Amino acid sequence: MQTHTTTTPFGRRSISLGQILNQATAREMPKDAAVQKWQVFQHIREAKDLLGATDRSLAILNALLSFHRETELSAAGDLIVWPSNEQLAARANGMPPTTLRRHLAVLVECGLVIRRDSPNGKRFARKGRGGQIEQAYGFDLSPIVARAEEFAELADAVKSEKNAFRVAKERLTLLRRDVVKLIDTGIEERVPGNWGRVQQTYQAIIGRLPRTASRQLVDDICTDLHSLYTEIREVLETFAKTQDMDANESHSGRHIQNSNPDSQIESKGSFREKKEAGGTAAETDNVRSLPKRELPLGIVLDACPNLRDLAQGGEIRHWRDFLATVELARPMLAISPSAWREACDVMGEQHAAITLAAIYQRTEQINNAGGYLRSLTDRAREGKFSTWPMVMALLRSELDAKKPMEQESNPLNSSDNGGAAGGAGLEISDALRRTLSGGRRTPGFGGGPRNDG
Hints:
The chain is built from 19 helices and six strands. The chain is mainly α. The protein folds into three domains: about 15-145, Arc Repressor Mutant, subunit A (Orthogonal Bundle); about 165-245, no CATH class; about 295-435, no CATH class. The strands form two sheets. Strands 3, 4, 5 and 6 form a four-stranded antiparallel sheet that branches. A hairpin with a 5-residue loop joins strand 5 and strand 6 (about 135-140). One of its GO terms (biological process) is regulation of DNA-templated transcription. InterPro entries: ArsR-like_HTH, RepABC_RepC, RepC_C, RepC_N, WH_DNA-bd_sf.
């Protein structure tokens, strides 16, 4: 008896060109093809995203494979199974009928099974006199045999992509850690450089990273971070080598001078005579009195309160925040990058930032901020400028401005015992109050700016 193998579904279901191509692939597979069904099913599970399958549809495919009694699927054997919807739902953990039909359609669209519908849409098998199956209507599993190699290749591609994504995320984590710690090292060791701009560059790169990113985006961000990391590392290594060379030269210089003490004394005497002959006594005394200790961040912020308005959130908690805020103030003062780099090279980035903050505090009294910064840089290069007296002058002006207001509010507390300095707006220690009341002339705000900004 001649039978016909149907290629179209029952009822209003349509057939697509992709399904026709899938049927042709299954029909052209070798006659001796055979695969282990559960091994192929594992490959399909791993490549389900590339195939367009879902977890529910794979649960149904697992149930369909369980209705095939043999563990091996062979092109020479019978590859059609015909379970009812009730049987499928039972083996698919009680899936509702509507969900079952929807995900069966997904399996057909993905080309994992082929519908072999009967004239009335029922699934059954017709057997001959010898008990052999002559005609079966249901789901044909031949695509699993025909596309077994394709599924294995897709599974390998998915594994490779997952491994590459894992490596990319590890690289991103390591680069982020290295860049952040190298920036901190540059700031803490006072390596010359625009570290505020470097931090902004780092934040801009990391800001492109969403909560869930593709591997391509992670690779692009890693490339940018690696470039930034390379630049920072080269700057730090160059500075470290320079410091090491300076230390060696300094050690050799001390050894040579100690071997000729008469020459050393003569040199010191001639240098002292030149200094006294070339400068006034006031300048010499002023240079000798410049403090060498570091300024606390709190005192700098009390002296330059206007800088807080530029800070993100209005708070400056660390020197890192202070440097980043000063970087925002520099273009507002029309200070050229070259003048800023020169100041950082001569004073160090932290003291250059304190100087710029003080200029920003007195911006209404300074016509040319760039020229003024260059002038202070030249004085610092000659050893005639320190940020400490400049900050003390700003603190003294703040106290002088508060004193009349406090005397008006409390006439009984207007004595000369320092009560005005203890106002609610600015609290300082007794030692600092005595320093401020010393009346020492402060370099930095005494002379006019140089017009070469």
